[in-house]
Amino acid sequence: MRRVVVTGMGAITPLGLNVEEFWNGLKEGRHGFGEITKFDTSDYKVHLAAEVKGFQGKDYMDFKAAKRMELFCQYAVAAAKEALEQSGIDMEQEDPFMVGCSIGSGIGSLQTVEREHKKLMEKGPSRVNPLMVPLMISNMAAGNVSIQFGLKGKSINVVTACASGTHCIGEAYRTIQFGDADVMVAGGAESCITPVGVAGFSALTALSNSTDPDRCSIPFDKERDGFVMGEGAGIVVLEELEHAKKRGATILAEVVGYGATSDAYHITSPIEDGSGAARCMENAVKEAGIALDDVMYINAHGTSTHHNDLFETRAIKKVFGDHAKEMKINSTKSMIGHLLGAAGAVEFIACVKEIENNYLHETVGYQVADEECDLDYVTGHGVETEVKYALSNSLGFGGHNASLLLKKYEG
After folding, report:
1. Which positions are annotated as active-site residues?
2. Angle between helix 306-320 and 275-288 (nearest 10)
3. What metabolic or biological pathway is this protein involved in (predicted)?
4. What pLDDT digit, counting tens, does each position of 337-378 carry?
5. In the chain, pLDDT over 70 holds for what percent of residues?
6. Is 102 helix (H, G, I), strand (E, B) or coil?
7. What letters, b where the CB count within 10 A reaches 16 and e where it falls short, cover 241-270?
8. Under 8 Å between Cβ of 372 and 313
9. Cβ neighbours of residue 102 under 8 Å, at least 6 residues apart?
């Protein structure tokens, strides 16, 4: 089985428009929450989100190309550009059919749906944009990144709701392991802070109704009342180890395990005993060939909903037993909210930076302990500690579970 390493990363997040800004925000314990500016929320119960600030698609691509992409695709292309530049990949020196793309989006473009449905109702079917479908469909993040950068290998879009980004990186990892590609550009992108997006999740009672930006996304806190919608993209360059070494690439981390399971239980709630997520984590660790006790850190899915945080805590205890009490667990969503299909990819990037810097960021906003969520969630401040392994979890509506295990690269 071929070894797979990370050689490039790119991020568009509510904390900044590149990986450095994102990481600095995490280290400083800043959050990206504020009043929704994309539409009038006067009639809504939910007023806060984690919006991307100051992004202009034309800063990252040709203006005409940007006009033919909705925001989630623009985010993906911008993050992919940063990741490829960091990796140093020269497509003129590569076999383009061995460089692939695996980028997910849980929803695609609700903006297109809203805009074109309004035209349909008010002006009739002849006025609907001919590009409505290619603007809307979720595979177009992968499609547009492939087109922009000439990636002719496997191009896929795994859609598993909030686990999409993690599954896309996992499937890219598998693709390289089995020799179907030497390089994969992988991750997730999402932009659904729209009237129907917020209304839909709000009607489901999944979103926080808090009006306090400092106490809205508070994973594992007893007063948590739902997640906060975020947006952005996280893209990484995965590469077969010998391929990376041959061209003198800087190796950021190694991917050593991938787990994927289904709860087969409920359309929105994780299974109550955490068994699906537990087996997922166990599979990722088993693939790496290490002991469960070797894993000291988990970047949790940690959405700030009652069920997720409780059942994920149970899952961690189920698989790690007494060792769970010794582990450090944090939630990046405490600062950037829930990026849906992009969440796992952005959190994967956070894990790589934590491994590089031997620093675990704080779960921001946590104040009130929950007796049922009784593990070490890195509260109050970040922690300087050696990070040899990082386990990243994503759990999606429909019961989709995905875990990726990263390791500090040691040659």
Report:
1. 162
2. 50
3. Lipid metabolism; fatty acid biosynthesis
4. 999 999 999 999 999 999 999 999 999 999 999 999 999 999
5. 100
6. strand
7. bebbeeeebeebbbbbbbbbbebeeeeeeb
8. yes
9. 142, 154, 155, 156, 157, 158, 168, 169, 171, 172, 175, 184, 185, 186, 187
